[in-house]
Structures are given as structure tokens and as C-alpha cells.
Amino acid sequence: MSSIFDDEEEEHSHQSLIERQSSVGGGSDKGEDNTPTNPSNGSGAASDGASRSIYRTKLYMALVLTVLATVIAILTHRYASSLDKSKFEQQFQDDAQEIIKISQNNAFKAFSTLEDFSRTITSLGNFKAGNESFPLLTIPDFEIRAKYFQEMTGSSWMTFIPLVDEETRSAYENYTLENQGWVQKVYEASSNLTINMPHPVPGSIWRFLPNNDPETSEVAPFVIAPDLYNMPPPGESLHPYYPLWQTYPAYEAVGIPMSTWVGFNLISLPDYVVPISSTTQNRHPIMEAMLFESIFTVTPEGQVPTPESIVFQPIFERNNDPTADIVGFLMVYLPWDAFFQNILSDSGYNLIVEVENTCDQTASFLLEGSKVTTLPRAVEAEQPGNETESSSADDQDESSSDEEHDDHHENVPYIDGRYVVKSEFAEFTRCSGNYCDSACDFQIHIFPHQNMEGVFQSSTPVFLTIAVVVLFAFTSVVLFLYDYLIQRRNGKVIDTAKKNNAIVARLFPSQVHDRLMNQAEMGGASAARKRTSGSVMAVIPSGARFKLHSFLTTSSSNGPSDDRPGHPQGDSLADFFPECTVMFGDIKGFTAWSSVRDPVQVFTLLETIYGAFDKLCKKRKILKVESVKDSYLAVCGVPTPREDHAVALCRFASDCNDQMNRLVQYLEKMLGPDTSALSMRFGVHSGAVTAGVLRGVQKARFQLFGDTVNTAARMESTGEARRVHASEATAQLLRQRGKGHWLAPRESAVEAKGKGRLQTYWVTPKATDASSTASGRTSDASSWGFDQHLHSSTSTSAKSRLNGKLQRIVEWNTELLLRLLKQVVARRNATTFPGKGSGPARGIKRLPGANVIDEMTEAVRLPRYKASKAPVNANAIELPLEVEQQLEDYVATVASMYHANHFHCYEHASHVTMSVSKMMSRIVAPEIETAVSEDMEANEYEAKLHDHTYGLTSDPITQFAIVLSALIHDVDHPGVPNATLVKEGTEEAVKYKNKSVAEQHSVDLAWDLLMSDKYKKLCGCIYKTQAELERLRQWVVTAVMSTDIVDKDLKKLRNARWDRAFSDETTTRATSTLDRNIKATIVVEHIIQASDVSHTMQHWHVYLKWNERLFQEMYQAYKEGRSDTDPSTFWYQGELGFFDYYIIPLAKKLKECGVFGVSSDEYLDYALANRREWEARGQDVVKRYVHTHADADADETTTPNRRASLDGTEDDGVEC
């Protein structure tokens, strides 16, 4: 706008000057009289017209700006409001889908757990001693099993109902009298302490008798008569009978204690006939109608009763037999609020979940974060079987139906019908057939609560609208003020020009006037050029700071070219920066973590994390100085000064902390267990630094020097994991910038080396002050270069029942086996098996009565390397999706088969698997590695490597089998040694003849699972021929059995094999195929044995972790009476002996094998170091073990018999 005004004014002024000049020149042409005439007479009208035109233009521009400001303000308000609305809608959709997903999973888990319980009962019925069978069955430890089921599913009541016919009735009634000891245990285990002590069970099958007294029948339709426990005459009897048997928890219904209810014939109540019949017909549990009141559950006074559904789980005579007869039921009351527990986080808003079914029932629940509250119903829904009058659907029009629907929601504080997400619920429980009257199809409707939209209604639209209006108003004022100042200047210029022109016109003739004007014009242009040149030079920075800026922006430098001291190339690139903030970051637990991984995994972690930090540096305009080992150094305010350097760097540190916590969760799937436990400490300090380019002969580096850097390092070293630790100087700068609410003072002063006691602070940037931070955070793993494999996006039923950490470990194990499986496929055409056995796989045949240990051989035969067929690239292999899914499901199922032992658990099996993978990757032939020439072909090199590593490097099936063996070697381990199992005379000990009981049992379980039809596609990918199948089986047996280091016969076999393979006589004679196979078998056994105790040959912290868990497991066995000796009495000396007589000799044998290169030195060095450390500190460590575990609470939540895979939460304790 100002440019338009300037052009018009200047044009007007120029026109006036021309008119004046013309007037003067005209006078001189008429005569010698040079007296000037009045120049304003001919230009007055034109000047007035130009002024009016300029005024109108300004008025139009002001009007346009006002309209434009109004329109943009309205659009801004609408756009900002739409953003709030879209955030609300997106969050609601995300929360609704999360509720649907998790509630469906909870329902599936509840019914799966119920099915597992019924299968357990079937197994118990099939293996009872004597001639007893269903229905004469008492479930051992019923109160423990039922309580566990209650904790897993949230059920309120459970009872076991055997199926009794007329023939077995008498025997059953006698059986209940003789086996009522479980009643006392249930009363003791029940949390309801108001229940009286149990009465004797009736000892008969009974039902209620109708009350025939006309005076009291309306009040009490049924009576408890003296013959209450006698069935009616045979003509009126109901059979088969469904008597209540074992029940949990203890209760008192309609005045009758629980023990008296034993034997009540449930089917004598008409309301239960149809549910039992529908379950019998469908042979799976049916979700029945909701019960809002029940005689078996009591709602506390003042609370809204939680609706429940009765579920009958059939119990079959045999497992895995679709034609098996039903021999009983588990009747369970499942409360509906349990399906929606612990889904949402406490985010300040609520959601409404409405459950509707085809039985005209509705229930509403309020989700307040993780809390679920049942909402009161405005209109009571009819219960199935109630004789209440209801109007016909044909007599109600659409409007009345809508009104009733609205009336139903009068107590539900949802927003309106615009926002609702609907989904079918538990479709796998639906009924089909003739007996489905009481069964209902359920649907859940999810609404946002009234407070949810308010949470997302921010004041941002109003502020933005005000900001737009203020911005336009300010801009308009500035423009008009600028125009006013320009007019004043132009007016002065015009007045001066008029005076000067008049003077020159009067003093000089026209020719002289023209020359003077031309000279002045030329002089002005020259001066302008000089001013322009000067201004350009003025803005060019100079000095050391400009050199620093150039160096950092171009990322190039030259080292000194002169060898003489004090003569670098050019001036030093350094400067002093009085105000900046420095950050140090360090990965906590990195040293111990890296000791169990190969170098590639270590660098993958560092490159991923620090690469993410570098992206944040670029976004936040922070300077990364360097990263050394696992430390990260960054600075803000260098080389470009910033007033907000403390605020910017604290936000950057918080971003790095959040990014670290997210990335390690993803990296655990790639780098194995305990990766998610890594965290970072951050230290921040503000002050002056000396910064410059430190040039060397090879390369130059940008460095910081000064006390500020040292103090920042002290802040990091005295900080805590996952927190930003700041000094008083940084805190003071944050307060000055209005960020004092970010600070939380430490409880006590910090003792920093070289600094004394310092008052420091924890820094937590608030979300409202760091809105831009959110945009800089990325949760998508693909943005950091992760390979999100297809199978990881699918969730198998076995995997879905694991907790979060176990799921990540399962994914890592799956990826490891998947890579090996691709190598199997890629190398299959490059190997051949000598002799017979190249036909299609027919299965493994075992002699009658033979066990796993009987399959042990002197050596496993490996295939010859077929150099004529070079292997293809394994990364190019694409396996069928079904194979990948089956592999993941198998690994997850194996994980679920591990018990929650402290040491022999799935987490330890994964630790062993990681060690096996690391050792397999380090199998090399040093003499070949040093002799490799550039012209050696790939086939020639691989053939030599095949010979020097005894064929292990060229047979992926062997590698796959070794890793698989490590994963399954402790499946279903009971948490006690084999000697205890033999002493206790367990079923497994008898089966395996007291030899390697746990190891043989693990092989049988895992192998039978793999060979099942469920994994047919997977097996078809692992092996194609009988030879490959037999080799896989031999390696699995050999590897798992090698973990039994106590069995004398196995130890004797291994010693003989070692003497034959690595004796002096063997090294001097030519190596035969048998000798090579024996050496390969020895190497594999030592890999498994070393990996099984790999924690003793790793970092001291890793050793202590697993050593303590083993102590805890053995101490628990001692407390349970399964071990006679307290481990604390021998643990210190026992570990020293274990190092001296097993670990250190084993580490030396790894070196003698000759295939592990320098890695064997690493294992031996760690073993010797840990032995020395244990000798010095072991007694104190054992005392700490005793203090920690000997006084543990008896109500410890983890028990050896509970499956870890069924725990849906992540625990900070034993996570296996």
C-alpha cells in the first residue's frame, strides 16, 4: 500500500516541477526579461484532483483491509474449531476401537480360560486312580484353581456340576458324603468373612418343594420342608440330574449355606432348563441373557447391581474328541463390567459403553479411565422367563419406539446420537438350534461422555481469532503511520524542491539550470551506489565467529599443513560464548546389555537411538557436538546465540528421553530381551564455554571446553534414569523465561565430584508449553528405518494371551527363527545327505518303550557341501504368510508352556537363545580368515569354511535346530532339579526311568507340538526329506540332552567323544567324515552348555541377575518342602566350585574347539573376572539374597504352577 502512495506523490511532485520549469522557460523565449512568473497558477486544479484520488484510494484500502480481516478472522475461528472437533472425533474413534478390541480379547480370554479349566477336569477324570470315573470326581485344589480363574476373568461365582443318571445316583450321593473335605478349604479361601462355618453336605440330590399353604404361598412359593433333601417319588423324578458339587466362593443364598446347596438338582429350576439344553446342543458355552439380580451374588447397599451372564461350559468325557459325551458342566457367573476394566488411561474424560442384546436388555457402563461403573437403568429390561405384560411391536409406531429409546438414556450422560461406534460382541458364543430362547446376541454401543467434548474444546479458536484481528489492526496502523510519515517527508522534499527550483530559475538561465540539475542527478546516483556498496559490506560477518559458523554449516575443515609447532593453517577457529546450555546423555545399563550381544546388535542400537536424536537436533536447531560410546553431547547457543537456549535444550532433552523410551520397545523385537529395560540419564547446565575446531592431522572436530561442560557431565552422572537433571544456573534461566513450573527440586543436595554439594532440579516440560514437541515426536517405527515384518502385525491366539514384554520376546525369537528358516530354504539345493534317506519325510519312528535319551548317538551326521550349486541370497526368500504365522504361533505356544519359575522360565530360555545365536555367528576359521584372497571365489571360500567348521556353517537346518533347542530346552520345567523329581516319584520320573526327566519331558512336549497338524505348513518348510527330518530330530535331542550336566552316563559319553575328537592322536591323523561329525556334535553340545550358563561368562550385573533368580527358585523349593537343604548354607562355596570345576574348564574347551576365534577369550575372561568378583563379594551377595527372599511375604503373587502366558499385565518382578 505504501508503495502505491509513494509513486503517486512522487509523480505529482515531478509534474509540478515540470510545470514550473516550463513556465520559466516560456518567459525567457519572449524577451530578455528572466523574471519568473507564478508557477502555481496552472497546477492548482491538477494538484487538488490528485489529492482527492489519493484520499479515495486510502479509503478503499482501509475498507478492503477491514473486510479481509473480518473474513480471515471468521475462517480462522472455524478452522481452529474444526481442528478441536476433529481431534475430539479422532480420539473418540481411537478410544472406541481400543475398547472394542480389548473387550473382545477379554471375552475371548475368559472363555478360553474356562475351556482350559474344563479340559483340566477332563484330564483329571481320565487319570483318577482306581475304578472311579465321572461323575465321582473331586477336583483337587479346587479353591486355588477357581480363585485363579476368578482373578483372570473377574467371575463372581463358579460351580462344578457333574452329570448324574439314575444308575449312578446312589453311588454319587455316598461319594459326596465321603469327599466333602473341599468345603472347609473353600470357606477358608473365600474372602467373605461373614459366612458361617460350613454345615455337612446333605448327601442326596434334592430340589425345592412347592409351598401348598394358601396363606403363605404368595410370599414364599417354595418352602424348606423336613424332607427337603429327598427327591420326589420315582414318577416325579427329574433325571438325568445336574447336582451342584464343588463351588467357589462360599455363599449363603435364600438363607441356605453353601454346603447345604450341595446336591441341589439345578435342572429342577425351569429357568435353567433351556440354557443347559442349548449348551448341550451346541457343545460350546452360550452367552445367556443378563441377570441384574442373583441369589448367588450380593450387591453392596447403595451400589448399582452389575449385570452378569450365566455361562455353562460343557465338560467332555475325552479331550480332542468331537464325539465325546458331555459328563458335566462348569456354571460361571461372568460380570459384564470385567470385560471393560483397565482399557482407558486416566486422560480426564469418560466414555459410555452400552450393551444391548436381542433379549431386549440394555446395560450401560461409565468408563472413567481404568475404572468401570455400572450406570442405573431408567427402564428395567425384562428378564427371560418373567411373566410380565408387554405391548406388541405391531402396536408401536416408529416415533414411540424412538421415544422409548430416548427415555432409556435419560440417566446416561452421552452427547447425542451423532457420535456412536457399534460392534457385535462375543460372536463365538452365539447359539444355534432349537434351545436358544434364553441365549442372546450382544452388541456394544460406545458413546462419548458429555465431559469428553469439553476436554477438547480449547480456547485456541478465540485466541487465534483475536490474534488475527490484532495482527491486521496492527498492520493497518503501521501502514497508515508509515504512509503518514512518507507524506510528511515528501511534503518537505516538495517544498524544498519548489524553493530550490525557484532560486535556481531566478539566478541562472535555463541552460545553466539544466546542467546543474543533470550534475546533481548524476551525483545522487553515485552517492546511492556508494551507500548501497557500503550497506552490503556492513552485513558481512567477520572474525572467528563467522569462521566457526562457516565450518559448522559446511561440515568441512582442513587440518594443519605445517608440521612446525604453533603454525597451523590459518588462524585458529575458536571463540568464547558467554551464554549457552550444554546437555550430556548416557545410556543406563548399556555395558551389561552389550556384553551379551554381538557387535552388529550393539551398533544397531546406538545408530537407531542417536540417529533419532540427530533428527531432533535438526528440528530443534540444537548443535550435536559428538557421541562417544553410549554418551551424547549437545549444546544450544553455539555458534548462533539464542536467548532461549536453556528452554530449547531442556525441551530437546525431554524429547530425547521420550524417543528413547519408545524406541527401545521397538528394538526389543530386533535385539532381544532386556532391550526395553535400557534408559537414559540427561544432565543439563548453562554457562560460558570455549568452542572451536580442534584440528588434527587426520581429521578436525568441533569441541567444547570449560567448566560448564564439566558441570553438565556431573549433572548426568548424578542423575536418574528417564529424567532430565538440571543445575541451579539452568533452573534460573528457565524461571526467567516463565518456565519455573517445569522444575522440581531434588529432595537433597547432590554431591558432585569437584563441585561439592549442589542444589539441582528435575526438569519436566509441560505438554501445554511444548505443543510443538508433539509434532517432533514420531511413534511410527518405520520412520526410523525399522523393518516391520508382516507377521508382527498379526496376532495369533497364543500370542494374544501373553503380556506385553513376553509378546516382544516372542516376536524377537520368531524373527530369529524366521531368518534361519529362510537360510534353510535358500541352502536346501546346495546340500545333500550321504546314503539313504533322501525320500519324502515319513516321520520319526521310535521303538516301543523307548525314550528320548535312547536316541542319543555318538555323532550327528552332517551333509556334504555341494559347491556346484551356490546358495541364493536368503534375504530374497519370501516365505508364505501362513508359514510365518504358524512359526509365530508355535513360538508363542512354547512360551505359554513355560511355568513362572524364577530361573527356568521363558525369559531365561530366550537369554539362552540369544547366547546361542551370538556364538553361532562367531563360528569362524581363523586360518582361513587371514588367508582370504580377493580372487578367491565364493564357492571356494565357503567350501573351505565348511571343512574347518566341521560343516556347521553350511547347514542351516543344524543352525535352526540349535536355536530351536535353546528355545524349548526347559519347556514345562517344574522349577526343581531332576533329583527332586526322582525322589518324589513323579509321573514323568517313572515314564523316563529316572533319567534326565525334565530334559526328555521338554523334548517330547515341544516336538509333539511341532509335529501336530496345526503346524503342517511350517514343518513342510523346515524339512522336505526324511533325511532332513531325522537330522533335525537328532540335533534337537542331542542339544537339549546336553543341558543335563549331572547324569553320569551322558557325561561319560561326552568325555569319550571329546577324547576321540581332540586327542593328540586325532590331530595327527587324517580327519574322516565320522571325526568331523563328532567334532561338530561336540561343538554344538558346548554351544548349548555354554549358553545355558552364559550369564556366568558375561558382565557381572548379568551374572548377578540370573544367579539371584536361581537362588530364589531353589529357596522357594526349600520353603515348599521339595528340597531338604537351605541353599544359603552352600551357595557361596558352591558357586566357587561351579566356576572352578565346570565354567572355567568349559570356557577353555570353547577355545580348544578352534572354531570361535577370539570370542572364546571373551568368555574365559568374563568367567575369570566373575569368579574373582564372587570370591571377593559373594558372601555379602548371599546375605543380601537371604535378606531379600528369606523374609518374603507368604502371599507372593507368583507361583510355580501358574502359566506366565496367562498374565495380561507386565510385572516389575519375575517377568517370565
Automatic annotation (TrEMBL):
Keywords: Lyase, Membrane, Nucleotide-binding, Receptor, Transmembrane, Transmembrane helix. Residues 40-49 have a biased composition (Low complexity). It holds the Pfam family Guanylate_cyc. Coiled coil: none annotated. One of its GO terms (cellular component) is plasma membrane. InterPro entries: A/G_cyclase (IPR001054), A/G_cyclase_CS (IPR018297), CHASE_dom (IPR006189), Cyclic_nucleotide_synthase (IPR050401), Nucleotide_cyclase (IPR029787), PDEase_catalytic_dom (IPR002073), PDEase_catalytic_dom_sf (IPR036971). It is found in: Membrane. It comes from the Eukaryota. The chain crosses the membrane at residues 59-80, 462-482. Residues 1-10, 392-405 have a biased composition (Acidic residues). Residues 240-346 form the CHASE domain. One of its GO terms (molecular function) is nucleotide binding. Its main location: membrane. Residues 813-1116 form the PDEase domain. GO terms for biological process: intracellular signal transduction; receptor guanylyl cyclase signaling pathway. Gene3D superfamilies: 3'5'-cyclic nucleotide phosphodiesterase, catalytic domain, Nucleotide cyclase. Residues 581-716 form the Guanylate cyclase domain. SMART domains: CYCc (SM00044). Residues 1-49, 376-410, 1192-1216 are annotated as: Disordered. Belongs to the adenylyl cyclase class-4/guanylyl cyclase family. This is Receptor-type guanylate cyclase gcy. It comes from Seminavis robusta.
